[in-house]
Amino acid sequence: MHICVLGQGYVGLPLAVRAAEAGHAVTGYEPDRARCEALAAGSSYVEDIGDDRLRAVLDSDAYYATSDPQDLKGFDVAVITVPTPLTDRAPDLSCVRDAGRVLAEWIEPGATVVLESTTHPGTTRDVLVPLLEEGSGLVAGRDFHVGFSPERIDPGNPDWRLENTPKIVAGLTGGCLERVKGFYDTVTEVTVPASGLEEAELAKVFENTYRHVNIALVNELSRMAHTLGVDVWHTLELAATKPFGFTRFLPGPGVGGHCLPIDPVYLSHHVKARHGQTFRLIELAQDINESQPDYVVRRLQDALSRRFRRSVHGARILALGAAYKPGTSDARQSPAVEVTDRLRQMGADVTVVDPYLPVAGGGCREIPFRATAADVTVGDFDAVVLLTPHGEFDLGRLAAEASYVLDTRGVMTAASHIERL
Fold first, then answer.
1. CA end-to-end distance (rounded Å), the chain
2. Using CA atoms, how far apart are residues 72 and 64, in angstroms rounded to an integer?
3. C-alpha–C-alpha distance, residues 127 and 121, integer Å
4. Distance between CA atoms of 395 and 387, rounded to whole angstroms?
5. Bridge-based pairing state of the strands 316-320 and 90-91
6. Which of 4, 36, 95, 259 is catalytic?
7. Is 36 a catalytic residue?
8. Rounded distance, CA 343 to CA 287, Å?
9. pLDDT above 60 (res 367)
């Protein structure tokens, strides 16, 4: 089949490459010309897709990157994987709408359009379908097929990838569901049919809401435990020995990435805007997790004052990690960036080291990154804050050379000069 994937980011590129490997002729539509040129040259900016893998599908002519909408002509299946960010703390569906308008011109009878972008229930039916019908002059569910299949990409996860993660599929009609499932059966090992579009859309935002709320719970627990003088990390280890009724979540400097800080807000905002009701747990979790970077800064501030009788202002601080999770360069909504921003605003001299973000900028407000920590003399700093525990960091060396470490991820052994959040 001729498959078009709109958006070649962390979600779209893995899908496009996987579809090409499965034998389809794939057009990767990316309106960002610089990104498109990089892909055409065989250079991947997504860690989950190595250059060798990208070049293989390019060399076989199974994959073609383009920023020209005319290359979408004649598609059998088009998948929308564009961002759904927040603008002024409200859902922004402009990219979905733009993709729908672009696609509508090229829809032919029998074609299938699938939305993968995370959004609130009702988006596929109430937002995307009218755009497709208006632009094509065709009727969804009769002349062409429409579906929703939420993305479940976890950047940097070597165990759960696109092909072996169960894929929820939904359709506007029974016939639409059959077409959507038929496509994903060729690229994933397990498909899970949903009874309707809205159920599939709600399942996605609830998956991330579940994580968001539970992370907020342990973040608040860590604050309370610190006040009580209790080791929260050992407490969580003990609780995790229960073989039923407990799922282990861990504290940290906050939540980041393309899902947790954003997706639950879609659900909360939709419920309030449409029905005037408040999703209280989501809003409370958002408040806790958004304030976690400030809590990290306060802990560091207290430690400098208590241990060295000095303030954050003028202190030399080494921040390890800027990405929102280990093993990836994804710094979107990263709490590590929020922490370093706040420290700099308070007058600290902050050096940030992240092996996955070796150049200035890196999507993190022009923070100067260094490629490795090898050229950094740890003892030159008043304090070290471990924000993202990349495997490349030598924690043994850090423990031996640092004057003080605030470990926000609980990966180091507590000691007189090492505090865990």
1. 51
2. 11
3. 11
4. 13
5. unpaired
6. 259
7. no
8. 20
9. no
d(C-alpha 321, C-alpha 53), whole Å: 27
Please give the pLDDT value at position 154.
Answer: 87
The model carries a pTM of 0.87
What radius of gyration, in Å, describes the C-alpha atoms of the chain?
A: 23
Residue with tokens 């998956």: 207
How many CA atoms, within 13 angstroms, populate the side-chain half-sphere of residue 243?
Answer: 0
Indicate the residue type of 189: E
What DSSP line would sit under 352-395, residue for residue?
EE-TT--SSBTTSTTB-EES-STT--GGGSSEEEE-S--TTS-H
What own/partner pairs with CB < 8 Å and gap ≥ 24 does 95-101 have?
95/7, 96/123, 96/127, 96/128, 97/127, 97/131, 99/6, 99/7, 100/127, 100/128, 100/131, 100/132, 100/135, 101/131, 101/135
The Cα 258–Cα 251 span in angstroms is: 19
Q: Cβ–Cβ contacts within 10 Å for residue 241, how many?
A: 8
Angle between the 263-275 and 280-308 helix axes, to the nearest 10 degrees? 140
Rounded Cα distance, 401 and 62, in Å: 51
User: Residues 69-106: pLDDT tens digits?
Assistant: 999 999 999 999 998 887 776 778 999 999 999 999 99
Cα separations (Å) of 184 from 23, 160, 418? 13, 16, 48
Residues 117, 253, 343: CA angle, nearest 5 degrees: 115
31: nearest Cα among 98, 104, 91, 118: 98
**Token code pair at residue 117:** 């972008």
